[in-house]
Write a structure and sequence with these properties.
Blueprint (H helix, E strand, L loop, with lengths): L25 E7 L11 E2 L7 H6 L4 H12 L4 E7 L9 E8 L5 E7 L6 E6 L5 H14 L5 E6 L2 E6 L11 E3 L6 E9 L21 E3 L10 H5 L13 E8 L1 H9 L6 E11 L2 E4 L5 H15 L49 H10 L1 E6 L6 E3 L21 H21 L4 E2 L10 E2 L1 H15 L11 H10 L1 E5 L4 E5 L23
Parallel strand pairs: 1-3, 1-11, 11-12, 12-13, 13-15, 17-18
Antiparallel strand pairs: 2-3, 4-8, 4-10, 5-6, 5-9, 7-8, 9-14, 13-14, 15-16, 19-20
Helix pairs in contact: 2-6, 5-7
Length: about 525
């Protein structure tokens, strides 16, 4: 068939001009596996499913499996990846003991906890006239029936010896507690100890290539330099990429040792969740009887969740005046971490943990604390601080003291980076006027672009930068742009004023006895 079609008409379609959002959250877990796990030590496992496959990959009850299982209680949406490590060849497993003595003069039960007060509770029935040896045998059986427990148990007459499933230093921090008693029966706890050697960490991050993780979770017994100085610090500011992330770990120790550890550190890339070592007769280990890496994993899971667009955060938000803050997104970078409920962590028993004065001392040196609310009914995040304290010249500097400040600046920088990439993917550079209809850039256009970005980042949906005419003018006045046509480069410096958090209110109440 012969057709005539004149004039020739072509309508081409191009993408809509819309802003580019920030990257989806990814969390990397680093920890030890068991020999029963199918994972290859040192390999990267991406996008771990919500089907319990962490037990198959890393071994049920392993450090890494328990990390991921804890995180998925809070967040089964974000991408979770893992690098699994084998126990060091010459490592020794930590051990603790529970010894029984006497004969029961009444029936009852004992509540015994090993590792976690929520996940590893063992209710041991005690019959009238039950012997210490029978109780030891029964308790060992209860613990060994718990395939998710971080330990195995063996009864030898009246003593149950608990052995960490993973060998190494981290096992020394496994807690043990008993919170009730039965007439005639005495229990004696020996804290976990004698675990030695962490896995070899050299070059473990080489499998990541240029993959970015906003959060990295690792056990504090691995030391800090391997994940901060050797990995994340170098990614905080890099050329032509957004790679920054923050490492989270838990650390149980004495007040003095925690302060010493934090004082030796100075990086915006590390958050340490501190807890107190208890040494009482019925409670050995962390005051919040939970594994340190589980605390870190759950906080990391929430951090990833809060930045996920549109996700319902109502379980974790206590604000009364910000309906939009009940939903996740980039705007949550400037929202306080403190007072965030952590529903899957156990309460700190009355009389244990750090005092208010001690908590303030820990904040000052860069240790964050999770603890009970005032009514003692739930666990909340306190101030979340990094270990950053001084600038490169060793001058006191609070720029990156709070994790919210790191998050806010990083989120703003990422938005600008992504949209500069999009808006100037192909463009001419000139010091003269722009010619309509052509892709061109000059100082005026670049200035207008940054002003537009500031307007977006200070408005609904972001609230990262100060809003209002005065703040915008201050930003514009700070903006310095220079052009190098030979190299085809534009350099820009600016001082956006970020939104902070309301951390305290002081009011003076003067008493009066008359309105006259």
């Amino acid at each position: 068939m012969t057709l005539i079609s004149q004039p020739s008409v072509t309508v081409s379609k191009v993408p809509a001009s819309s802003a580019v959002g920030n990257a989806a959250q990814k969390v990397l877990f680093v920890g030890q596996k068991l020999t029963a796990g199918t994972a290859t030590a040192g390999a990267l496992y991406s996008s771990i499913e919500n089907d319990g496959s962490e037990d198959t990959l890393f071994g049920a009850g392993s450090m890494l499996s328990n990390m991921i299982k804890a995180a998925k209680k809070i967040n089964n949406i974000s991408r979770f990846d893992a690098i699994s490590l084998a126990d060091a060849e010459s490592a020794v497993a930590a051990t603790g003991t529970i010894a029984f003595s006497g004969t029961a003069t009444a029936a009852g039960s004992l509540n015994i906890y090993v590792g976690s007060k929520i996940n590893n509770k063992y209710v041991l029935p005690v019959a009238l006239n039950a012997t210490a040896a029978s109780l030891a045998t029964a308790l060992a059986a209860l613990i060994n029936a718990d395939t998710k427990a971080p330990v195995t148990a063996a009864a030898d007459t009246v003593t149950v010896t608990l052995t960490a499933r993973n060998k190494g230093l981290e096992g020394n921090k496994i807690g043990i507690a008993i919170d009730n008693s039965v007439a005639g029966i005495t229990t004696t706890l020996t804290a976990f100890a004698n675990g030695t050697l962490s896995p070899t960490l050299t070059n473990i991050f080489s499998v990541l290539g240029d993959e970015r993780y906003q959060t990295v979770v690792f056990p504090s017994s691995y030391e800090y330099d391997f994940v901060t100085k050797d990995f994340l610090d170098g990614r905080f500011n890099v050329d032509d990429a957004m790679m920054q992330g923050v490492a989270i770990c838990g650390l149980t120790d004495t007040l003095s040792n925690l302060k010493t550890a934090a004082n030796a550190l100075n990086t915006q890339s590390l958050v340490i969740l501190g807890d107190k070592t208890e040494t009482g007769d019925t409670h050995k280990g962390s005051s919040m009887l939970e594994l340190d890496y589980v605390k870190a994993a759950q906080f990391a899971a929430f951090r990833a969740l809060k930045f996920t667009d549109g996700i319902d955060l109502s379980r974790y938000i206590v604000t009364t005046g910000g309906a939009l803050d009940y939903f996740g997104g980039t705007h949550m970078a400037s929202f306080p971490y403190f007072n965030t409920p952590m529903p899957y962590l156990p309460l700190v028993p009355q009389g244990k943990g750090f005092t208010k004065t001690e908590i303030e001392e820990l904040y000052t040196v860069g240790i964050s604390i999770l603890g009970n609310n005032l009514s003692g009914t739930s666990v909340l995040c306190g101030e979340i601080v990094t270990t950053y304290k001084t600038d490169v010249a060793s001058n006191p500097d609070e720029t990156w003291k709070y994790l919210e400040s790191v998050d806010t600046a990083s989120a703003g920088a990422e938005y600008m980076f992504n949209n500069l990439k999009k808006d100037y993917a192909q463009s001419r550079l000139t010091e003269g006027d722009l010619i309509a209809g052509y892709s061109m850039a000059n100082e005026g256009k670049i200035r207008a672009t940054f002003s537009n970005y500031y307007g977006v980042l200070s408005s609904k949906g972001y609230v990262l930068f100060e809003a209002g005419d005065e703040a915008i003018k201050a930003f514009q006045d700070s903006l310095i742009i220079s052009i190098d046509k030979i190299k085809g480069k534009i350099s820009a410096t600016m001082k956006p004023v970020i939104v902070s958090q309301l951390r305290g209110i002081q009011a003076l109440l003067q008493i009066a006895f008359s309105v006259k």
